[in-house]
Design a protein that fits this description.
Layout: H1 3-6, E1 11-14, H2 25-28, E2 36-42, H3 53-72, E3 76-82, H4 85-96, E4 100-104, H5 109-117, E5 123-127, H6 136-144, H7 151-162, E6 166-167, E7 174-175, H8 206-224, H9 243-256, H10 281-286, H11 291-305, H12 309-333, H13 351-355, H14 362-374, H15 379-392, H16 397-407, H17 413-424, H18 441-447, H19 468-479, H20 481-484, H21 491-499, H22 502-516
Parallel strand pairs: 1-2, 1-4, 2-3, 4-5
Antiparallel strand pairs: 6-7
Helix pairs in contact: 3-8, 6-12, 7-12, 11-12, 12-17, 14-15, 16-17, 19-22
Length: about 525
């Protein structure tokens, strides 16, 4: 009789898709030979949320590789491919006579709710997540002391708490270089011919190939059932799917990209979708990398290499600051945050969002093509191209947030609610961001080369040749002028709005309306936010 059969109660650990770490809390609460592990691969959710093919391949292949890694260190692991998670876990509980099931708290609220709703016939034990640096209790303690939840205050607290990029110790510790934030040094426009180093990609092994074939069968099944296809394509696929590969991506970033990351992290260049970006967010969000190990490695390597401090601080701020901050606020704000719609925008998404191309605008179509190919775009492309269009065109914030969740390789509920609703769309009315990040075509012209060869003129605000971003931008300001006038950071731009002659503003707003109604972008969706 096996050791498992002698256990009382029989213990199981269910590892969720974004918890692929051997050190995650539920696994750490027991050990090999003391519990049986379950991983579930279910396509049931695709009827509700049709995710990008590359995202499915990444998650399912990473999960299968993780199952093998656990078995290699002595765990008894069952990987179930099932119609639904509920069906899989109930059958597994009955088969192995599991009496106590342990899970680590998921980052996404909806996972916890769905599992609780299963009413499984076992003692269910939830363990606090250790996937982030700040526990939810610690973040709540910080947030409860604040009058405003600003990233800069939180980031400085995190630097002190974890001793990152500091000189001195204790209360005498000061930020390395004499200032906390070097963001002003990291906003250079791209010069002509700017090229970044090639990203590290991996040829699919037999496990990944089997997953790709499964996704291809799902596509065929959807076509047969008359359902729209899943976005993107599973081929070619080059993302990391194991911890070893994820660590290799981190080391490749340090060796080839870290030193150049700072100056052009906001730049956008046709044919250069990754530039100097780290490309590690998918692995952090799946648990293949832990944020603290990444931060420590970046800090050590950056200081040893003499990496420019502005760039080193900038990439660490994205992990220690922004990532922890948005996760903390997602849980602090609570479930009602998902319905935020400060401006009352209701316009449906244009067809080119779902089709991942066809807007006629070079900036949008360039970024959408990159998303279609890999499920990836860097943070400025997301904020200042895709989401900026959604904000100024008055798109439904819930629909656009759901789109980001489905399309991006690193998309999760906790990621997209705060990043899209809060930061990008200002749908929360300023609970997260201090002002709307609205921009005209002039920003795109300055920070990218997308406007070269575009059918629209970024210098025109109205008429058939005018950049749609210009028309939408001024129309957005005019529609919400009264509300925006209460935000001190919008004073300067609203003064510019007031200088536009009434007749020209009427023409600008008419141009915005024509674009929104499907001319000349070829989109027939209707509605007015």
């Amino acid at each position: 009789m096996s050791r498992l059969a002698d256990l009382a109660p029989r213990l199981g650990v269910w590892v969720l898709i974004d918890q692929l770490s051997a050190d995650q809390a539920a696994l750490a609460s027991t050990g090999p030979g003391q519990a049986r592990v379950l991983l579930v691969e279910s396509a049931a959710g695709l009827r509700r949320r049709a995710s990008h093919c590359q995202k499915l391949v990444l998650q399912w292949s990473a999960q299968r590789h993780f199952a093998i890694a656990l078995r290699q260190v002595g765990w008894e692991v069952d990987h179930r491919e099932a119609a639904s998670s509920g069906e899989a876990v109930r059958g597994w509980i009955a088969e192995h006579r599991i009496e106590e099931l342990r899970l680590m708290e998921p980052a996404d609220r909806e996972f916890r709710q769905a599992i609780d709703a299963l009413r499984l016939p076992v003692r269910l034990v939830w363990l606090p997540s250790n996937a982030f640096l700040w526990s939810r209790e610690a973040f709540s303690a910080w947030a409860g002391r604040q009058k405003q939840w600003r990233l800069e205050f939180f980031y400085r607290e995190g630097r002190r708490r974890f001793g990152v990029l500091l000189e001195g110790e204790g209360k005498m510790a000061r930020p390395l270089g004499g200032q906390w934030n070097f963001d002003a040094d990291n906003r250079k426009a791209p010069p002509r011919g700017l090229e970044g180093p090639a990203p590290l990609v991996f040829a699919p092994d037999a496990i990944t190939e089997a997953v790709i074939e499964r996704v291809e069968r799902l596509q065929e099944q959807r076509r047969a059932e008359g359902l729209p296809p899943l976005p993107g394509s599973p081929r070619p696929f080059g993302w990391a799917v194991s911890r070893q590969q994820a660590l290799a991506v981190l080391e490749h970033f340090i060796a080839t990209r870290l030193d150049g990351f700072g100056p052009y992290q906001d730049a956008m260049v046709q044919g250069q979708p990754t530039l100097w970006h780290a490309l590690i967010s998918p692995y952090l969000n799946l648990g293949l990398l832990h944020p603290l190990e990444v931060i420590r490695r970046l800090e050590t390597a950056g200081l040893e290499r003499g990496t420019p401090l502005a760039g080193l601080e900038g990439v660490i701020r994205q992990i220690l600051g922004w990532r922890e901050y948005t996760h903390g606020l997602y849980h602090w704000f609570g479930e009602a945050y998902a319905t935020s719609n400060h401006f009352g925008h209701q316009r449906p998404l244009p067809a080119f969002f779902e089709e991942l191309g066809g807007s006629g605008m070079a900036c949008l179509d360039t970024v959408l093509a990159e998303v279609k190919a890999t499920g990836y775009a860097h943070h400025i492309q997301r904020l200042m191209v895709l989401a900026n269009y959604g904000l100024i065109a008055g798109l439904d914030p819930q629909a656009l947030t759901a789109w980001f969740h489905r399309m991006f390789i690193d998309g999760h509920d906790w990621v997209m609610q705060t990043n899209v609703l809060g930061m990008a769309l200002f749908a929360d009315g300023g609970r997260l961001a201090s002002k709307p990040y609205a921009a005209s075509g002039n920003y795109i012209r300055r920070m990218s080369n997308y406007c070269q060869g575009c059918r629209y003129d970024p210098r025109q605000r109205s008429g058939p040749q005018a950049c749609p971003l210009n028309a939408h931008y001024w129309d957005f300001l005019a529609r919400h002028q009264h509300d925006l006038s209460r935000n001190g950071r919008m004073t300067l731009v609203l003064r510019q709005l007031e200088k536009i002659p009434a007749e020209e503003l009427t023409e600008i707003r008419a141009t915005a309306e024509l674009h929104s109604d499907g001319w000349p972008l070829g989109d027939q969706s209707r509605g007015r936010g």
